[in-house]
Design goal:
The structure holds 4 protein chains of 4 kinds.
Chain A lengths: L1 H14 L8 E6 L4 H16 L3 E6 L3 H14 L6 E4 L3 H8 L7 H6 L2 H4 L3 H7 E2 L2 E2 L1 E3 L7 E5 H6 L8 H13 L3 E4 L4 H15 L1 H8 L4 H4 L2 H14 L11 H10 L2 E6 L3 H7 L8 E5 L7 E2 L4 E3 L6 H14 L2 H11 L15 H10 L5 E2 L2 H4 L2 H16 L5 H14 L3
Parallel strand pairs in A: 1-2, 1-3, 8-9, 11-13
Antiparallel strand pairs in A: 3-12, 4-5, 6-12, 7-9, 7-10
Helix pairs in contact in A: 1-16, 2-17, 10-11, 10-13, 10-20, 13-21, 20-21
Chain B lengths: L1 H18 L12 H7 L4 H8 L17 H4 L3 H27 L6 H13 L2 H12 L5 H7 L16 H26 L3 H9 L4 H12 L1 H16 L3 H6 L11 H9 L3 H32 L1
Chain C lengths: L3 E10 L2 E11 L4 E5 L6 H9 L6 E6 L2 E2 L10 E4 L11 H11 L4 H15 L14 H13 L5 E5 L7 H18 L2 E6 L2 H7 L2 E6 L2 E6 L1 H6 L4 H6 L6 E8 L4 E4 L2 E4 L14 E5 L4 E4 L7 E11 L3 E8 L2 E8 L9 E6 L5 E4 L7
The chains are: A alpha/beta, B mainly alpha, C alpha+beta, D mainly alpha.
């Protein structure tokens, strides 16, 4: 019975999109800045074109703010039609509680397994062989952003990787320039995570986070990681740490700092300031050391709804989000990489193109932290890294031991 | 209505306490069966008190209570520091301002609004402004040095040991106006004849305030004390907006711990809330019995 | 030398003139009551005397000293308030002695004065209690005590009995009178209760609109009110007013078909006035069976209200309601036609235009 | 003493005062210094809101703007994007009014009556009741979110205005009740007794004696509730339902953008604009702070 209904809905949505009744579908997400809004508008435009109506329910403040709201709405019996949610462990409980719509049939029908890449994205939407969410884009956090002018003006070589930057740091400091700008909170976690990947290597990083390999977590590879973090903290002392990530990027743009480590979304800040990649600044994936990228990204889930019209609209939306045109239009505005390889991205900027190139090599791509470990453990690791960064009394051995303890205690 | 409210608080509290003993994570659970299935005993509490972020007291065994603040770090001690300082300063400054406002001054409305406005604005942004002002990079320190005062130093916000005091400053800025308003309401609830009588008796105004008016305002003072304390105990926005717990985790507070875990590990959130609740109950209940018990008997 | 002397006192709040060019001289040991309706300025005047309000013009002298600019505590006054205004967290002893301690009086002196005040007011057993544990009457006694210990010449009372119930009020009234007889201080007393005024005062000042309307002994005020307002304000039930004309060169008062002979009226030149009012107090009228020309008014009994000692009878005469106080045993039956005998010597005549007594 | 001298020094009329006395000077000096401390962040907010983003990023926060522009203000009100819609914060204005007005009235009505009962008509478990209420004011409200979702769902009012009114009433009650209970307790008890002797009942005493005497505390209470409810974001967004999203949802969306760049000038303008309603209430409420509004007026 249930399957039949679903199948009917599926038929209605896929086969007869133009005849389908106009249904209002409320979509919650946390994209509210100018560029993000423009990107969402592409989704909405495409969805409205199917004869349905996208009702926007933007709630800014990242998943920490939105999650309780989304869960409350679902529990209160008034779920939204679709919602952005961090993929993986975060949503597992909702899926296990049977609150999320299974969209496996649609995924099979449209052969998502083949058209969406990398495979890790769809995998994190899949629980027990069933698909529950649609990945819409890829974001990566392994980028070093360097202000070329700072080096050129001072007659120094522009560093091409993190090690060269550290080598140049004393000279920069002598000139009153902060070698590395840094923001409070998750930005520090991101820097430390990037150093783990750069210093210990992708394999070891994944082994620790995904397989919980304690010998590596406690071993010399990660000792080196924490030594590198300890080295970084002297270049970004506590009184130079700014509250927000974009302020840290802004310091690089203004030339007050030489470099910053941040995700690909930082590219937008440079663009707004009118800086050109390759000329004014460099973007170095994998911190310029090994060209690797993690594949964080945004996905949409579809809470179960009693109304078959809404279920049909949900499937229409899911299908719409991964069509070629929508993927291109959305990702160009969002500054992220599309899920499909078979689209034309000639309009992409240099940094995006670098990212796309790396994406083509499956070995250079690895899952993001939240796809491998639960949010609670990530929060604890973030706390630890922040504290390690701020508290110069904390020793490398101490930090590594605490890190290993969190990994060990994390639920599998 | 009263019963509904009572029911909500009682139910909410019971739920909080009971399910703090379960492995509840992201999705809330409510049924007895789920409680039995998820029961993990004191695991949440064990983790809570093993977390540096909550409380870490390396030297508490051999140093007396007087040094508690200076040896312990973490959210709980931070909250105590904040509460003690902000209450003391906001209440005394609020009282001073209320007394001055009560001197039949001109433009009372303007002053009152100036002192109160911080209370009206969302702290998400005003906190950011404070972060700017206190930031050694952008704020007061940088400006003073630009003006040529090179030795001027105000970097509390980036100093692990001073950061809570920086938050206290912003807390006072936000909360004193309301304390002032409540004090002013209290002052104006005092019988005018009391003032006349004290004038005829030749009692100087400051003695009238201290020896007659303040004792008369005791119920209002108790109200202020409870409101300010409950605000201080639940301090959240302020810290998130100004330091977001930094540098490191040195300015974390219990509410922030509770909020952050709320969307990642409800069990931690609930056990931390229970600890706060029990702590408040230990402090409050005997006091309430003393304070209000005698009144209802009289 | 006057005990208290107010000269040309005016008080303005912004544009509003609350007290208008007031003059008042109070003799040593005199009990003056300021009486008037709400908003007449009586409490304001008292507050000016106490120095709690700053006057706009004029001077105040107390015991010959110009205290116009003096602080309240330097004026040699004590004050008692309607709400008692006791300091709630201090004991009765504390309340009595607090001001003296501030004035740095020696301990023995303070003790002596507290002792004396508590004897006079019989509050000795209450000395160590707090105001919260006292009854209203006890509190007011303490409040009086607080004025008493200041050892001053002038006491100011601001409606001190208004917060008490009727029985306590009359008890304390007697006590106040006794106190005055014993202490012989000057007392200035504000009230809106005319019984208090009539029973306590040596002289009553009736106020209205910031002006003293009449300042006289209670009997004078009662029998010879100087204007319509005073006449109507004093007395309960109120004086009967009948509009008419004076005729025959002031020999008679005529209204409707009734003519009253004015011979024997105690007052000024009556003359012929087209608009006059005669005021007759209910107890100055008597119900008689026979008409006497020039002395009686025909009337019909409507209702009567027995009041215990006597009875108040309401009659209708010439379309006017008239009340008469009669002994209980003489209560007439409703509907009876009777005649009202007027005691012209005790009646009051007013000019309707100027509202002044003739 | 000569006559002339005596005449000159004879006090008459109002006591002459210097233009400003030493004490007055201190009073105003303290008030003004404190006012400056309180105004500093507002100054920065206003200045920032009149700057362009380029000027914000390059300039000193204390320096007044050289090229004032209203762009940020009009953008904040009218065209700032929050998700799909770029209509600024004006969108939720009426929803905020719709939530704030009834929530404030209901919560204050319930709390004032509760406070009055606790202060003057103690019942059997009033002490226990009060203790629970008081403890309630120390609970981090966030942990109550899920139980309240269940409760409002069972009452059938989840995602309606009623739910959010109920929630604000519940969370406002501990502090509000305390406020009223203690204020009523500090009023002279003779009034209560006298009114009872005069035969006034429960409601008669409340409305005729206590309410008129408590205007300042009602003002404080309105300030507290309006501010809290107007600025609330979480409860509005969870319980009121998407059709009733208050203004703060837009404010949060503008201010809290997670990844995109931050437009501080717009943030500041939006914050001030959102705060205008409570600010107006603070200013207007002023006259209700005047001393003795009830007590002093009776006497002549």
């Amino acid at each position: 019975m249930k399957n039949w209904k679903l199948a009917a809905a599926l038929c209605a949505s896929v086969a007869l999109p133009s005849v389908a009744m106009a249904t209002d579908l409320e979509v919650t997400h946390w994209w509210t800045s100018g560029g993000e809004s423009a990107a969402v508008a592409e989704f909405a435009k495409a969805f409205d074109a199917t004869g349905n109506h996208w009702v926007d329910g933007a709630i800014a403040g990242s998943s920490d703010t939105a999650r309780p709201i989304i869960i409350s709405r679902i529990m209160g019996g008034n779920p939204m039609g679709a919602t952005q949610l961090n993929p993986g462990k975060d949503a597992d409980e909702l899926i296990k509680a049977g609150l999320m719509q299974d969209i496996t049939d649609l995924a099979t029908k449209e052969d998502w397994a083949h058209i969406l890449r990398p495979a890790s994205q769809l995998a994190s939407c899949t629980v027990d062989g069933k698909v529950y969410c649609v990945p819409v884009n890829l974001h990566s956090g392994q980028w070093m952003w360097v202000n070329r002018k700072v080096f050129e003006d001072n007659g120094m070589a522009v560093p091409t990787n993190y090690n060269e930057l550290i080598a140049a740091a004393p000279a920069l400091q002598a000139k009153g320039i902060q070698p590395l700008s840094l923001a409070q909170g998750w930005a520090i976690g991101l820097l430390a995570g990037d150093l783990m990947v750069a210093v210990a290597g992708v394999d070891n990083y994944v082994k620790v986070y995904k397989d919980r390999d304690m010998t590596i977590a406690k071993g010399p590879e990660f000792t080196k990681v924490f030594e590198a973090i300890a080295a970084a903290r002297q270049f970004a002392p506590a009184d130079k740490i700014v509250p927000q990530w974009n302020e840290a990027v802004s310091l690089v743009i203004q030339g007050k700092a030489a470099a910053n480590i941040m995700g690909d979304w930082a590219g937008g800040e440079f663009a707004v300031a009118g800086l050109v990649a390759g000329k004014d600044f460099d973007c170095l994936p994998g911190l310029g050391l090994t060209p690797v990228l993690d594949t964080g990204g945004d996905v949409f889930y579809f809470p179960k709804n009693a109304d078959p019209a809404i279920t049909a609209a949900q499937l229409t939306l899911a299908s719409t989000l991964v069509t070629k045109d929508v993927q291109v239009a959305f990702n160009l505005k969002k500054g992220s990489l599309p899920m499909r390889a078979d689209v034309d991205l000639s309009k992409a900027n240099d940094c995006m193109k670098k990212g796309l190139e790396i994406l083509d090599h499956s070995t250079a791509v690895f899952p993001s932290g939240s796809q491998m470990i639960d949010r609670d453990s990530l929060n604890q690791i973030n706390d630890l890294l922040n504290e390690f960064f701020a508290n110069t009394d904390m020793s490398v051995a101490d930090a590594q031991a605490k890190f290993a303890a969190i990994i060990e205690a994390a639920p599998k | 209505m009263m019963l509904i409210v009572l029911g909500v608080f009682v139910c909410g509290t019971i739920w909080t306490v009971l399910f703090s003993f379960t492995n509840i994570k992201i999705l809330p659970i409510f049924t007895p069966k789920e409680w039995i299935d998820g029961f993990v005993g004191l695991a949440n509490y064990r983790r809570l008190f093993n977390t540096d972020r909550w409380m870490s007291c390396p030297a508490i065994t051999h140093i007396g209570m007087a040094d508690w603040r200076f040896t312990c770090t973490g959210a709980l001690p931070n909250m105590v520091t904040y509460a003690v300082l902000s209450i003391a300063i906001a209440v005394s400054l609020g009282f001073l301002l209320a007394v001055l406002m009560d001197q039949k001054i001109r433009a009372e409305g303007v002053f009152r609004t100036i002192y109160l406005y911080p209370f009206a604005l969302s702290f998400v942004v005003t906190g950011h402004v404070w972060a700017w002002i206190m930031s050694p990079e952008y704020g007061l320190q940088a400006s003073m040095r630009q003006l040529g005062w090179d030795s001027f130093s105000f970097g509390w916000i980036a100093d692990r040991k001073m950061v809570m005091y920086a938050i206290v400053i912003a807390g006072i800025w936000q909360g004193t106006g309301f304390v002032m308003a409540l004090m002013l309401a209290g002052l104006r609830g005092i019988d005018e004849d009391i003032w006349k009588a004290s004038k005829v008796d030749g009692i100087p105004a400051w003695r009238t305030y201290i020896q007659i008016v303040i004792p008369m305002m005791k119920p209002v003072l108790v109200t202020i004390f409870v409101i300010v304390t409950s605000g201080a105990v639940r301090i959240y926005d302020l810290v998130v907006a100004i330091t977001d717990g930094g540098p490191g985790i040195s300015s974390d507070v219990p509410s922030r711990y509770i909020y952050q875990n709320f969307s990642a590990n409800l069990g931690q959130s609930l056990s931390a809330s229970t600890v706060m609740l029990v702590a408040m109950a230990i402090v409050l209940i005997p006091w309430i019995r003393m304070e209000f018990g005698k009144k209802s008997q009289a | 030398m006057h005990s208290v002397s107010v000269q040309n006192l005016s008080l303005k709040f912004g544009a509003a003139e609350v007290l208008k060019n007031l003059n008042l001289d109070v003799e040593e040991g005199e009990f003056i009551v300021l009486l008037g309706p709400s908003g007449c300025g009586k409490s304001t005047l008292l507050n000016c005397l106490a120095g709690l309000l700053e006057l706009s013009e004029g001077q105040i002298h107390i015991k010959g000293k110009n205290v116009t600019w003096a602080e309240p505590s330097e004026r040699g006054i004590g004050m008692v308030f309607q709400s008692y205004a006791l300091y709630p967290q201090m004991t009765v002893r504390g309340n009595l002695s607090f001001g003296l301690k501030i004035a740095k009086l020696p301990k023995e002196e303070i003790e002596k004065r507290v002792q004396r005040a508590s004897e006079i007011l019989q509050i000795g057993p209450l000395l160590d209690r707090k105001p919260g544990a006292l009854s209203g009457g006890q509190r007011q006694r303490v409040a009086i005590g607080r004025a008493l210990v200041r050892d001053v010449d002038v006491f100011l009372f601001d409606e001190p009995l208004s917060n008490l119930d009727a029985k306590l009020r009359s008890e304390l009234r007697v006590e106040l009178k006794r106190l005055h007889n014993r202490l012989k201080n000057t007392m200035i007393y504000v009230t809106h209760d005319q019984i208090e005024a009539l029973t306590l005062a040596d002289r009553i000042a009736i106020m209205r609109g910031g002006i003293i309307q009449q300042l006289d002994a209670p009997q004078t005020i009662y029998n010879r009110p100087s204007n319509l307002f005073v006449a109507g304000f004093i007395g309960s039930p109120a004086m009967n007013f009948i509009k008419g004309t004076t005729v025959g060169g002031g020999k008679a008062f005529k209204f409707g078909d009734v003519t009253l002979n004015l011979v024997g009226y105690e007052g000024g030149a009556i003359m012929d006035r087209p608009k006059a009012i005669i005021g007759l107090r209910p107890e100055h009228l008597a119900i008689v069976d026979e008409a006497v020309p020039g002395l009686t008014i025909p009337a019909v009994v409507e209702i009567d209200e027995p009041m215990g000692a006597d009875s108040l009878v309401w009659l209708e005469a010439e379309g006017k309601q008239i009340s008469v106080r009669v002994p209980v045993e003489h209560r007439p039956v409703a509907g009876t036609k009777v005649h009202l005998k007027v005691d012209i010597a005790k009646s009051s005549l007013f000019d309707e235009t100027s509202e002044l007594r003739i | 003493m000569t006559n002339a001298a005596s005449f000159a020094t004879t006090p008459s009329g109002a006591k002459p005062k210097p233009f400003i006395t030493w004490e007055r000077f201190v009073v105003y000096a303290v008030l003004i210094v404190c006012a400056l401390f309180f105004l500093l962040p507002l100054y920065i907010m206003i200045m920032t809101s009149f700057k362009s983003m380029a000027e914000v990023q390059s300039g000193n926060i204390f320096v007044p703007t050289l090229h004032p522009t209203f762009d940020a203000w009009s953008k904040a009100w009218d065209s700032a994007c929050t998700g799909l819609y770029c209509e600024g914060i004006k969108v939720g204005f009426w929803n905020s009014v719709k939530i704030t007005v009834p929530s404030t009235i209901v919560s204050i009505a319930v709390a004032s009556v509760t406070g009055y009962s606790l202060a003057n008509w103690p019942f059997k478990f009033s002490e226990v009741f009060f203790t629970i209420l008081l403890l309630g004011s120390f609970i981090p409200y966030v942990v109550m979110i899920y139980p309240l979702v269940i409760i409002t769902r069972e009452l059938g009012i989840f995602s309606t205005l009623w739910a959010v009114i109920l929630v604000h009433t519940i969370f406002g009650l501990p502090i509000q009740t305390l406020l009223f209970r203690n204020y009523f307790a500090s009023l002279p008890q003779e009034l209560f007794k006298a009114a009872r002797v005069d035969g006034a009942g429960y409601w008669g005493i409340f409305f005729r004696i206590f309410v008129p005497m408590s205007v300042p505390i009602f003002t404080v209470s309105v300030i507290l509730q309006v501010t809290g409810i107007w600025n609330d974001f979480l409860f509005g967004v969870i319980y009121a339902g998407p059709t009733n999203y208050p203004m703060t949802v837009q404010l949060n969306n503008i201010v809290n953008s997670s990844m995109g760049g931050k437009a501080y000038n717009v943030d500041m303008a939006a914050t001030i604009l959102t705060g205008i309603v409570p600010l107006t209430i603070y200013f207007v409420s002023g006259k209700y702070f005047v001393r003795g509004i009830a007590a002093g007026a009776v006497k002549g």
